Amino acid sequence: LAGGIILGVALWLRHDSQTTNILYLQLGDKQAPNTFYVGIYILIAVGAVMMFVGFLGCYGAIQESQCLLGTFFTCLVILFACEVAAGIWGFVNKDQIAKDVKQFYDQAFQQALMAESETNNGKAVVKTFHETLDCCGPDNAIGAITPLWRDDLCPKKDSFLKNLIESSNCHKKIDELFSGKLYLIGIAAIVVAVIMIFEMILSMVLCCGIRNSSVY
After folding, report:
1. Residue 149 CB: number of other CB atoms within 10 A?
2. Can you say where in the cell this protein is located (predicted)?
């Protein structure tokens, strides 16, 4: 059940419309940085393997097989080590992920403001960011002034004053998007780690109980 829940959360994060809209963008020959998906793929793998390993543990307990329970314990230790490594990687790279996406957005924004921007897809990339995140410009100052010279780049508001007041800068929105998603990944990883610790303890207790009972 825990494996199924983790797999479901990971698949939802993988196919979330906001992140897929942004991370599938391509600026000329450059692909949007999708390092974020590394953590998602690790969660998907852990969830799928947990479902199989859970079945292995259940079958081993029903059959009272020390071999199957020992294999179950070994698999849990390997999964736990992988998850700890993934958690450390996520903590180290959490700021870098948002930074890379912001740099990609800034490059597209600069190209969209250039006179020859119609010859590349910078404008399309920027508009996707603006529409997906409901923002305008890389920071508050530029975001407020952008509609003055490139009104077609920002989400349409009823009036210029409303656009000035309601438009948020895209750097802030990118930070909020990825910090929120990484927060969910962190919670899922902690929950799985706690469940794994209990599973390892209980499997060893059961394995020892079966071994001791077979003596008599």
Report:
1. 8
2. Basolateral cell membrane; Membrane
In total, the chain counts a number of residues equal to 216
Mean residue pLDDT of the chain comes to 77
The secondary structure element, H or E, covering residue 31 is strand 30-31
Give the pLDDT confidence score for residue 68 in this predicted structure: 84
pLDDT at 86 > cutoff 60: yes
Q: What is the pLDDT of residues 2-29, one digit of tens each?
A: 788 888 888 888 888 888 888 888 877 7
What residues contact 192, with CB distance under 8 A and at least 6 apart?
2, 6, 46, 50, 83
| Full domain range(s) for residue 94 | 1-214
Dist. CA 93–CA 46, nearest whole Å = 20
DSSP code for 136: -
**Host H or E run for residue 26:** strand 26-27
Do residues 138 and 169 touch, judged by C-beta distance below 8 A?
yes
Helix (H) or strand (E) holding 10: helix 2-14
Where residue 44 falls (left for φ over 0; alpha for ψ -120 to 50; beta otherwise) is: alpha
| Res 65: pLDDT | 82
d(CA 215, CA 25): 64
Q: Cβ(45)–Cβ(9) under 8 Å?
A: no
pLDDT digits (tens, 9 = 90+) for 134-154: 887 776 555 545 554 456 677
CATH (domain of 59): 1.10.1450.10
Read off the pLDDT of residues 99-120 as tens digits, 9 standing for 90 and up: 888 888 888 888 877 755 555 6
Domain count, the chain: 1
